[in-house]
Structure formats: C-alpha cells, structure tokens
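Deliverable D5.2: sample structural annotation.
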Amino acid sequence: MKNSLIQKYNIPGPRYTSYPTVPYWDNDTFSKEKWIKTFKQSFIESNADEGISLYIHLPFCESLCTFCACHKHITKRHEMEGPYIETVLKEWQLYVDLVDETPVIKEIHLGGGTPTFFSETQLKRLIDGIFVNAKKHPEHEFSFEGHPNNTTKEHLQTLYDLGFTRVSFGVQDYNPKVQEAIHRVQPFKNVQKVHNWAKEIGYTSISHDLVFGLPFQTKENVIYTINKTKELEPDRISFYSYAHVPWVKGVGQRGFNEDDLPKNEEKRELYEIGKELFAEMRYVEIGMDHFALPTDSLYKATQEKTLHRNFMGYTANKTQLMVGLGMSSISDSWYGFAQNVKTVKEYERVVNEGEIPVFRGHILSKEDLIIRKHILNIMCHFSTSWEEYSLQIENVETHIEKLEEMMADGLVSIKGSKLTVPEKARPYVRNICMAFDKKLHKKQPETKLFSMTI
C-alpha cells in the first residue's frame, strides 16, 4: 500500500517556503515602490515588539557542489570579500533610511554560498556594521551555515562573541563515492573537529544537514552516515530530500547521470530508515525534513505552536518582517515578497547607485494572505481551520474536493472546518498544501518548475 501511494503522489510540487510560490508571483503589477510601502507597514507593526529578521546571502564558494540549487558565485579570489561586505552594509543603510525608528533585530541568518568563505575579520565587520544602526532583541537568535572544510575556530569564536548561538554544518553523506559525485569531499574528522569546537565555545544549537536521494546513495550509506552523526549528537538534524532540478539555470546539477539517483520507493526507503534511526536517537520530527532533540528551541516552538516557516526554512522565531540582504536574497514583509538581482556585479552596481536592488516580487492580495496562513499552518502544525471569519476561504468546497482522494487514502482528515494531517501522512504534506494552491490550479506549469514531492 505504501509503495503504491508513493507512486501515486510522487509528483512535482513546491516546498512552500512562501505562498504564492516564486514562479507564480505577479511581477507585472509589482513595483519597488509597492514593496517599500509594504516594508514600511510591516516595520511599524512588528519592530517594537516582535523585532525583525535579516537573511544575509554570502554567495561565494571556492568550488561547485553539484547537488546545490542555491545562487552562488564560484571564485577563489578572496579580495572580493571586502567590496561585497561594503555593498551589503550600503543596502542595509538604504532600508534603515526608510524608517524613523531604530530596527530591533531578533534573527540573523548567514546563508550562501559559503559564509565561511569570508574571513572572521570580514564577518565581524559585517555584523558590527549592521548594528551601527540597529539593536538586538532581548530574545535574539543568530545563526550561520558553516562548511566543515573551511570553518575555523576563529570563525566560530568571532561569531559567538557577536551573539551567534546556532550553527548548521553541511554534511550531506559520509560515503566517499557519493561525496565525489556531488563534489563535496569532507571526511568525518573535519565535521567532528568543527562540531566539537562549536560545543566547546558554547553554541547552544548545532545542526547537521543530511541529504537523502543523492547519486549512488544506498541504504547502507544512510545508515552509516546517521550512525556517525549519532557519535556527535547534534541538537538538530535536517534530513533533506535531494531536489534534482538541473533545468534551473546555473544550479550545476549536471555532474552525474540521472540513472545514478535512487528513485520513488527506493528513495522513500532512505527517508523511512533515517526517520526510524532518528527516533531511536531521541530526535522528534519537526515539520517537514527536520528533527530536533527535546532540549532544542525548534522542539519547544513545536510544542508551543510558535514554529514558523519562511525562505530560511523552519525557525523557532516568528517575525512578520524578514529583510533579505545580498545578491539574490528574498525579503518577506508578510504583505509582499521581493527578490534582489541575481549576480554579484549587478547587485553591487545597483546598490552603489543608491537603489534597493530588487528586480521582481509579489504583493499579496487578501485571498493570498488567507491561503498563505492555511499553508503555513499545515506545513508547521499539520492542521488548519477555516472556522474563524478571517480565515474563511472562498469556495472552500473546491479545495476539499481536491483532497477527497487523499482522504480516501487516509492521508488527511477533515471534520467540519478543521483539517488534520495524521503522522503517517507527513511525507505527503506538500501534496496536501497543493490542494489549497489556487495559483497552481489556475495555471499548471508548462515546463519543469519544481522538484518531486516525495
């Protein structure tokens, strides 16, 4: 039965880090002026109490990992660090100039690319520069992505001294053949070294990112990788499904043959094995793809129903306003999305001309906001309700009709105006959300846009 369900529902679909999803943004009616208006509105509503989030994209990598779908700039020229940091700080100043109050920052995440491509001196310059015109929220949580091969003890100590308490290390898989295929060779001893440094320094949440469905990966590989991970016992584990999207320009996923990838039931078995092993290790499944120890803030956010999801993935901190700084970064004001230009050269040019470097986006309609809330509830809490007037969906019956087959398969339950996803159906949560995606149903994609859901 399980295998037949996988075959039935393993279709292309969004990961719902936003609604509407990026391919369905209405760029024709979007403008930078409209984005700035929503930014100001959200800042006024949220800054004083909740605070705001910053996502800072640091795009440089010394080599290309062929599993990665992020926007990056491959270079060994470290002299590019300084001008890029300077430009990010100029972009931040452009946003600060739009508001009257001092920004209160609750969350910072340094993503990439490879944030630890940058020296600790440049990273300190970046964070110190941000706080020239901002202050820390009393409950702030700052995090960064560390590459095990180039993260130094100085990186970890410098960022910790600046207020960072969370770090995630990209592990992927410990098998040499898999690592060669994805061009990410890093032995266990490298991960062990940086993990232990972080623990020694005082980081309160250390995460390891693992990936299933990689080329040449077998269940023996996954078991071995998880058993090695058990030796270090990170606070969180992200267990991502490899998204094979070689049709997306510039992602670099041409380093292996598609026949080398585990598919359908074989791929799903890798997840089930991982989930079972994580449970034995006392990890609790959080949302989609994430596992945390009961001592971690992500678990606590789940228990307190405060778990949030945005372009950074799952977070224990909800902020209404997230400003994305840097090349290709996406900002979210709750009422609108905006994405920066996608190349370093263009990004630096626009910012140095005194302009916010947004090139596309979407302003959410009233209907978009309602659907967004329901999809967020399903992704974070595996349930939602349209009983309240403010959450009532026009023609809700059409969405329920799209779920009838999944209800018959035991993957979703609807009683009255409440929807619940049973635990066994969590692998199908993206499919469930798709039933509410009016943009997707109104216009089915004519070309490949999304990775497979399972």
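Annotation notes: The radius of gyration is 21 Å. The longest helix spans residues 264-280.
The annotation will be released with the project's public dataset once the embargo ends.
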